[in-house]
């Protein structure tokens, strides 16, 4: 529109258009009023039915909840306990009276808890015996109406039934062991039902709860229920809104809705004028006229100001464009600021993460060795300025590698986290010693080793006090997932300046102390002494010698025979590895086998042993013609690597052994680690012709499921159970149970450590198949085994298995 241009419409044109619009609008509104009058009455009827339907549904839900209350009471422990005690013969004097009191208290508790906004939901609760005797009731003096006792009520659940005097009851049978034992009765409160009938009621009107014959059960207290009204309500069609002309009541609008519970129905009534109140048409006319005038005047005002608004819109649009440019520039500036802030936050987060990785352990969140070393240096520097001392405690978990190997690294990690938590809790104590250790003074050094810094102690005994408290806190069962463990730890202590004046010396001496504690069996505390370093050097020296022992051919294989306990016939031998050190003499396997497993030399040693056993078995067969089975031990560490079957198959090819008479002995811990892989390995070994021996059975987990899942051929009863035979009753019962178990599973039973004739005869009577021990022969090299075999078959077997009962006592025991 140009600057000097006038509006197209003039004032007369505008008034004409406005008048025509007013007349058309008025005519349309009058038509709408006539049409809506009928719709309004239909909607009012539907609204009455919908409101009645809501109250009916709410009342039906109320009855359903009351049935659920009786279902809960029927499952109550107190009621069942009464009938169980009665079935056991308990009298009222001895026990039943207390059970009745418990039932009454249960009922009173339900009465108190089941209260609505307008009062109690129940007037009474009772348990009535089939003969009509009230066993328990709440209130305590309540009795059912005289001569009214329900028959057997239901098989599926509680029911709602009208009772004498226009009352409503929730009833259910109580059955004990399939027989009727009594009736549970609950008398509903009319006030609660009346509240449900009134809830949601808008305006005037009356709601009634009537039975299937149309008789009112619950009605508002102010309702005047005349006989003509009740007669008309009985004939009311269900679900339809009807208009009733009742003498003395006028016209009523009513609807009857069935509840679906014991024939009960809800009847909603309201005065006709309250439901179908009419508004005279003239009210609609004047309202329509007023609206039309307002509309016309508003239309003129809008046209008057339209041109002014056009000019204003042009200015606003120009300002908006300017504002848009500024908004874009501000948004770009805000994005740049946000980008720089995010970069700064990422840099700070990276610095924090780098600091955490450099100074803290990722698993436990404890300081690492580097940060702990700094804290130790500062503590030693402060200690030099005062009279106090500083103690360094090194804690090492006992048998932690076994947890990792058998239960998995996830359980091992959870155990380390638990230990870190316990250490921090122990050092937050309230005594003088506990307060000197801060959270930063506990660190994880590596693996299963932790370090604790205790400052401000006056004597080494204070550090021992802290160590004892830590050890006591750790030696308690802990559940990690589905597994319960009882950890054990060893603690070594070194005190500054008595046991070292610099950090390296102090840490080295504390390590020596903890290694000494572990060498003594673990689960103990050792305070550093100067001679401990010598034992640590000895272990390192033994490890170095072990690495060269195979090259120098210092290992030997000794064999101990296993005999049939019935015939005395040798059935096999067990291969035992021996180390003949040129300087140390004969080194015990208990000393070098753990070192070999820890350093990874166990696989190389095992291959050498198996190769030697295969050669010796062939030599034996060629010299004697006897098919003697040779058994060799395989460690848990080897099975964890998962290549045992492949290694033995390779050794069989290298030695040219086609039909191996080789047995593999393994411990129960092997079966716990990676069970599917281990089972596959054992199945493959059996396919190669090898038999599986489960060694030291009874000393580990002894899970029967393992005997079922894994291909085990032989159970070896540990010597700790055989030693006490036959005098020790506990050992005798355990051995008898193992023999019975193995026999039922078709396994061969071998008893280890048989040393007396009494043990031999006792095991033979139990049905044990084979025995091994000093009574028959000690472990010897292969040539001496051949000599033993010849002597045994010519004399020893005959003496021991044919005339042992006549031997003097001094010959019955082998030292």
Can you walk me through this structure?
With 815 residues, the chain is α+β, with helices and mostly antiparallel strands. The protein folds into three domains: 8-278, no CATH class; 369-533, 2-Layer Sandwich (Alpha-Beta Plaits), CATH 3.30.70; 550-795, EAL domain (TIM Barrel, Alpha-Beta Barrel). Helices cover 51% and strands 20% of the residues. The protein has 25 helices and 28 strands. The strands form six sheets. An eight-stranded mixed β-barrel has the order 20-21-23-24-25-26-27-28, surrounded by four helices. A hairpin with a 2-residue loop joins strand 6 and strand 7 (179-188). Helix 1 (11-74) packs across helix 7 (281-359) and helix 18 (644-655) runs parallel beside helix 20 (675-687). It is extended. Residues 1-9, 430-440 and 803-815 have low confidence and may be disordered.
């Amino acid at each position: 529109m140009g600057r000097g241009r006038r509006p197209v419409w003039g004032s007369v044109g505008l008034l004409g258009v406005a008048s025509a619009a007013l007349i058309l609008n008025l005519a349309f509104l009058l038509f709408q009023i006539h049409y809506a009058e009928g719709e309004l009455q239909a909607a009012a009827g539907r609204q009455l039915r919908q409101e009645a339907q809501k109250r009916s549904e709410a009342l039906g839900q109320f009855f359903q909840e009351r049935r659920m209350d009786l279902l809960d009471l029927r499952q109550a422990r107190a009621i069942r306990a009464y009938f169980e005690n009665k079935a056991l013969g308990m009298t009222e004097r001895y026990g039943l009276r207390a059970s009745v009191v418990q039932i009454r208290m249960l009922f009173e508790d339900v009465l108190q808890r089941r209260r609505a906004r307008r009062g109690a939901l129940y007037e009474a609760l009772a348990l009535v015996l089939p003969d009509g005797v009230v066993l328990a009731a709440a209130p305590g003096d309540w009795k059912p109406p005289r001569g009214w006792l329900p028959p057997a009520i239901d098989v599926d659940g509680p029911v709602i039934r009208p009772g004498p005097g226009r009352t409503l009851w929730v009833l259910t049978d109580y059955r004990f062991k399939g027989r009727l034992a009594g009736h549970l009765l609950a008398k509903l409160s009319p006030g609660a039902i009346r509240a449900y009938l009134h809830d949601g009621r808008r305006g005037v009107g009356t709601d009634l709860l009537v039975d299937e014959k149309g008789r009112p059960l619950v009605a508002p207290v102010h309702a005047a229920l005349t006989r003509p009204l009740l007669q008309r309500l009985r004939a009311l069609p269900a679900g339809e809104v009807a208009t009733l002309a009742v003498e003395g009541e006028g016209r009523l609008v009513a609807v009857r809705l069935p509840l679906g519970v014991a024939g009960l129905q809800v009847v909603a009534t309201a005065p006709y004028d309250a439901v179908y109140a009419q508004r005279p048409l003239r009210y609609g006319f004047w309202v329509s006229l007023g609206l039309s005038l307002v509309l016309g005047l508003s239309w003129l005002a809008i046209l008057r100001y339209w041109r002014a608004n056009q000019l204003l819109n042009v200015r606003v649009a120009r300002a908006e464009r300017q504002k848009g440019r500024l908004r874009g520039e501000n948004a770009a500036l805000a994005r740049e600021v946000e980008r720089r802030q995010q970069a700064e936050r990422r840099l700070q987060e990276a610095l924090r993460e780098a600091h955490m990785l450099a100074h803290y352990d990722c698993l436990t969140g404890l300081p690492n060795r580097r940060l702990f070393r700094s804290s130790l240096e500062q503590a030693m520097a402060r200690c030099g300025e005062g009279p106090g001392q500083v103690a360094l405690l090194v804690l090492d978990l006992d048998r932690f590698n076994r947890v990792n190997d058998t239960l998995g690294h996830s359980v091992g990690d959870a155990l380390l986290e638990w230990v870190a938590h316990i250490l921090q809790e122990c050092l937050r104590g309230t005594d003088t010693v506990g307060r000197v250790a801060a959270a930063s003074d506990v660190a994880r050094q590596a693996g299963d080793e932790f370090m604790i810094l205790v400052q401000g102690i006056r004597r080494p005994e204070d550090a021992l006090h802290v160590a004892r408290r830590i050890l006591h806190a750790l030696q308690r069962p802990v559940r990690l997932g589905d597994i319960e463990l009882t950890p054990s730890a060893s603690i070594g202590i070194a005190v500054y300046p008595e046991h070292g004046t610099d950090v390296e010396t102090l840490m080295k001496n504390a390590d020596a102390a903890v290694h000494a504690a572990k060498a003594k069996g673990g689960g103990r505390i050792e305070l550093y002494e100067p001679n401990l370093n010598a034992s640590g050097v000895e272990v390192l020296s033994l490890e170095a010698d072990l690495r060269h022992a195979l090259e120098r051919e210092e290992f030997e294989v000794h064999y101990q025979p296993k005999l049939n306990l019935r015939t005395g016939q040798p059935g096999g031998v067990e291969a035992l590895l021996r180390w003949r050190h040129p300087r140390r003499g004969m080194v015990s396997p208990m000393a070098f086998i753990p070192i070999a497993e820890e350093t990874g030399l166990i696989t190389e040693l095992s291959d050498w042993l198996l190769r030697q056993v295969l050669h010796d078995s062939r030599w034996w067969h060629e010299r004697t013609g006897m098919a003697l089975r040779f058994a060799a031990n395989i460690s848990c560490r080897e099975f964890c690597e998962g290549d045992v079957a492949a290694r033995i198959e390779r050794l069989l090819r290298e030695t040219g052994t086609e039909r191996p008479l080789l047995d593999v002995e393994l411990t129960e811990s092997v079966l716990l680690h990676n069970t599917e892989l281990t089972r596959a390995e054992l199945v493959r070994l059996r396919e190669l012709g090898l038999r599986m021996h489960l060694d030291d059975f009874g000393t580990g987990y002894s899970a029967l499921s393992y005997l079922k899942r894994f291909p085990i051929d032989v159970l070896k009863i540990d010597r700790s159970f055989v030693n006490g035979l036959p005098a020790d009753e506990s050992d005798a019962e355990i051995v008898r149970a193992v023999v019975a178990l193995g026999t039922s599973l078709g396994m061969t039973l071998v008893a280890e450590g048989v040393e007396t004739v009494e043990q031999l005869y006792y095991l033979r009577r139990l049905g044990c198949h084979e025995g091994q021990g000093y009574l028959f022969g000690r472990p010897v090299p292969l040539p001496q085994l051949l000599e033993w075999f010849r002597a045994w078959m010519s004399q020893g077997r005959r003496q021991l298995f044919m005339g042992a009962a006549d031997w003097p006592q001094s010959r019955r025991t082998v030292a």
